[in-house]
Write a structure and sequence with these properties.
By secondary structure, the chain is of the alpha+beta class. The protein has helices at about 60-65, 85-95, 100-120, 125-140, 155-165, 170-180, 195-210; strands spanning about 10-15, 20, 30-35, 35-45, 45-55, 60, 75, 80-85, 145, 150-155, 185, 190-195. The chain has a four-stranded antiparallel beta sheet. Strands 2-7-4-5 form a four-stranded antiparallel beta sheet. A four-stranded antiparallel beta sheet has the order 9-10-12-11. The longest helix is centred in the middle third of the chain and has 25 residues, at about 100-120.
C-alpha cells in the first residue's frame, strides 16, 4: 500500500515511548511505516499483552470509528515511524483517494475482529482452555494447512504465550497436558491440532462455565 504522498502525516517515536494510554480520549489513528508497536491492556487488574504490530498495520482506529476512549496502551518497542490521521485528514483521504480508502476500511474490519477475538482469549480463566483458544483463534484468522479435522498451525510456543498473555513456562505446562491427552503434536516451528472441532467444544464448555 503506497502512502508516500502522505509523508506530511509522519511521526517518529523512540523505543519505550507511549504513543497513547488506555482510557484517554483519542482523536487519531496510526498506520505503521516501520518498527513495532506493543498493545497492552489492564484485565482484572493485571497488565496483559494484546498484540505486537508491525509495518502496514493500523491501531487506534476506534477513536475514529466510535469516538471512544483508548481501549489499550500503545508502546513503541523500537524506533517507530507512523502516519498519524485525525478525523479531518482521514476524511480528506477517504474522499480524495477511494482506492486507498477501501484498503484502509478492509484493514479496519480485520483489525476490529482480531482485537475482539484476542480479548476473548485473554478473558478465559481456565489456562488450558485459554491456550486452546489461541489455536482456534489462529485457525479462524490465519492461513493454516491440514486435512479434515486435523490442522497444522505455523506457530511456536513463544507465539502461543504471546497471544495467551501468559509466561512461556506456564504455556509449556498447558501444552504438555494437550500432548499427554494426544490432542496436539508440537514441533519447533508448528503445532498440529489433531481435532480442531473437539478442541472448540472443550474451549466453549470452559467459556460457558466461566459465564455462569
Amino acid at each position: 500500500m503506497d502512502f508516500s504522498s502522505f509523508s506530511r502525516f509522519a511521526k517518529i517515536y523512540e523505543k519505550g515511548d507511549v504513543i497513547f494510554s488506555e482510557f484517554e480520549k483519542g482523536d487519531t489513528f496510526y498506520l505503521i511505516q516501520s518498527g513495532q508497536v506493543q498493545l497492552v491492556k489492564i484485565v482484572n487488574g493485571i497488565e496483559k499483552n494484546l498484540d505486537i504490530l508491525k509495518a502496514s498495520e493500523i491501531f487506534g482506529e476506534m477513536a475514529i470509528l466510535e469516538n471512544s476512549p483508548r481501549s489499550a496502551t500503545a508502546i513503541a518497542l523500537d524506533q517507530v515511524k507512523v502516519l498519524e490521521f485525525n478525523k479531518e485528514n482521514f476524511e480528506v483521504l477517504m474522499t480524495g483517494n477511494p482506492a486507498i480508502a477501501m484498503k484502509l476500511l478492509k484493514l479496519f474490519v480485520k483489525r476490529i475482529y482480531t482485537q475482539k477475538r484476542r480479548f476473548m482469549v485473554l478473558t478465559l480463566g481456565d489456562l488450558q482452555a485459554r491456550v486452546g483458544d489461541v489455536f482456534i483463534m489462529l485457525y479462524q484468522t490465519m492461513q493454516t494447512s491440514g486435512h479434515g479435522e486435523t490442522v497444522e498451525i505455523a506457530v511456536t510456543k513463544e507465539d502461543v504465550a504471546h497471544w495467551a498473555g501468559l509466561p512461556v513456562d506456564i504455556v509449556q505446562d498447558e501444552l504438555n497436558k494437550f500432548v499427554d491427552q494426544r490432542k496436539i503434536e508440537i514441533y519447533e516451528d508448528r503445532i498440529i491440532v489433531k481435532n480442531i472441532i473437539e478442541l472448540e467444544r472443550f474451549v466453549n464448555s470452559k467459556r460457558r462455565k466461566s459465564l455462569n
